[in-house]
Task: structure prediction
Amino acid sequence: MTVGGALAHAHTLGVDRLDAHLLLCTVLGCTRTWLLSHDQDAMPEGPLARYLSWLSRRADGEPLAYLLGDKEFFGLTLKVTPDTLIPRPDTETLVEWALSLIPEAGPARVVDLGTGSGAIALALAHARPQANITAVDASAGALAVALDNARQLGLRVRGLQGSWLTPLAGERFDLIVSNPPYIAEGDPHLPALRHEPITALTSGPDGLDDIRLIVAQAPAHLAPGGWLLLEHGYNQAPEVGALLRQQGFEEVSTRFDLGGQPRCTGGRRPA
Ligand code: GLN
Result:
C-alpha cells in the first residue's frame, strides 16, 4: 500500500482526514507536508500495520488522544491514558478564571479536585510558579498520570489520592477548583464518550451528586475570602449557583466557554 492509499483507506472507514494525517505522521515520523509530496511511496510494513490497527480503533470511536497518547491543553502537552478524561478546551474557561484569582507573586494555596491528567493543576502551576498547587484524584491510575505529567513538564505539584477534600483534613486553601463528573446517568451523549472513564463523567441521576459533595465540603477547607470554582454542564449553572448560595458563598457568578455555554460557576467564602 502507498502513503496515498493509506489515506484513501482512512476515508473509506469514515476516519476524519486530519486524524488520518496525524496518525500516519506519527507512525512514519514525518510532517504533514512530507506526506502530501510522497503519496506514491510504499508504506513500510511495521508502520503500516500500526497505522491500520489505529485506524480501525479510531473508526470504532476511540478518541485520537488515546491513540497518540497525548493532548494539548492550555499550551502544555499532557500524556493521557484511558485512566484519565481527555482535557477539553471548555475547561480553559475554569483555568482563566482561576488565574485571575491567583496573585502572580506570592504563595497562594490552590487545590484541583479530580485532577485526572493534571490538566488544570499543571496549567496553574505553569502560569503561577510561586503558588502551592495540590492535585487530588480518587483514581490511583489518574494520579500517576498527573504526577508523570508534572515530572515531564518540570512543574511542582503535590499529588494526593482520595475523594474530593477528604485527603486534606485540617488544610485550608485560597482557591479550590474542580472539573468533576457532572453528566447525568443515562444521558444520551454517554455512548459517544464510552472510551473515557465513566467515573470521570457521570454523577448520579441529575449529574450533580459530586458537585453537591464538593460544595458541602469546601467551606471547611477555604480560608476566609477564598474561592470555589466549579465546571458544570451547560444547563446546570442555576442549580450550582443555588447550591453555593445555600452553603453561604457570596459573589456567586457564572462564566461562559468558547462555545458560549455557561460552563463554570463559583463563589467566595465570606471574609
Ligand atoms: N465536558 C465533558 C463532556 O461533556 C464532561 C466532563 C465532565 O464530566 N467533567 O464531554
